[in-house]
Design goal:
Blueprint lengths: L11 H8 L12 H12 L7 H6 L4 H14 L16 H15 L5
Helix pairs in contact: 1-5, 2-5
Amino acid sequence: MALVSQLFRGNDRLEAALLQDSSHVTLNSQGEHVRLIQIALVRLGEKSILGKEHTAALYGPTTAAAVRHFKTARRIINFSYQTAADDIVGKMTIQALDNEMSRLEAIPTL
């Protein structure tokens, strides 16, 4: 399985997060993969990510809060061991972000 959205596809770190628990994106991660997650969150309505986190491509506290909010709103929770959404971008989260971005990208623009 591969990521299909134009935003995410081809990014090795995000592809790895889809497949391996050891590649989850967590607090204090940094890099282009984090920036892509931030872009997706903002495009999907999470407007609370601080500019300094986005500029540094840093998974900081406001990015973590946006991820938690995204996951809570969509009930992305592994009920086998969780009772509430966490701030980790793992398999279920990256898949949900990718699916929503793919749908958003398919909407024609004027």
